[in-house]
Design brief:
Layout lengths: L6 E13 L4 E12 L5 E9 L5 E14 L8 E2 L4 H6 L2 E9 L4 E12 L6 H4 L15 E7 L2 E8 L14 E3 L4 E3 L12
Length: 193
């Protein structure tokens, strides 16, 4: 008889992008499932955000999508969790998905987060899991894969929240009567009066 199924999961953060149109940060997550065993398996993927308390999911930019790997077919029930469900806790990405031996496939979704600038700290942004933040930091995300309702593997991923200040400098020159904007701060003329 062939060896039993051997289901593994890997969590990655694909992209973190600032959306200046609506002042959100969009994050794309991927969960890759592989079957390294000798028999097909039917699995479920459960996902839990462990992001900083300064972040709130405001919208689901791209809902859960199947990403073909060496397995191109999908037969499971693909979840469509809402922003509120992501904020509340564990969500199901896919349920009762069949994966043949030696195959892999992935599940992706993209979330938009708002950031509370008044509560963010370096500790809650840096992806260092410490007691001060109750394990919630950065864009952290935990994922579990279950077979027959039993946890068989888990993984997590985290990208830090970018805390670079966004400073805009406008150089002005006093022409004797009023202040005039300099188009290029480096080439603005120096005037003496």
């Amino acid at each position: 008889a062939a060896p039993p199924e051997d289901i593994k999961i890997v969590k990655t953060i694909v992209d973190v992008e600032l959306n200046t149109e609506n002042d959100t940060i969009e994050v794309m997550y991927r969960s890759t499932v592989s079957n390294n065993g000798g028999q097909a398996a039917v699995y479920t993927v459960e996902d839990t955000l462990s992001v900083s308390d300064s972040l709130t999911v405001t919208s689901v930019v791209n809902n859960v999508e199947h990403e073909a790997g060496t397995e191109g077919d999908t037969d499971g029930d693909i979840g469509a969790p809402t922003a509120q469900q992501f904020n509340d806790g564990m969500v199901t990405l896919v349920e009762d998905e069949t994966l043949q031996p030696g195959k892999n496939e992935a599940w992706t979704f993209t979330l938009a987060f708002s950031l509370d600038a008044d509560t963010i700290t370096v500790a809650s942004a840096d992806c260092v899991d410490d007691d001060d933040e109750n394990g919630k930091t950065g864009f952290a995300n935990d994922v579990d894969v279950l077979v027959d309702n039993q946890l068989v593997d888990e993984d997590d991923a985290c990208d830090p929240i970018p805390l670079e200040p966004m400073i805009e400098i406008l150089k002005q020159i006093n022409d004797g009567d009023d202040f005039v904007d300099a188009d290029d701060a480096n080439s603005a003329p120096i005037r003496k009066y």
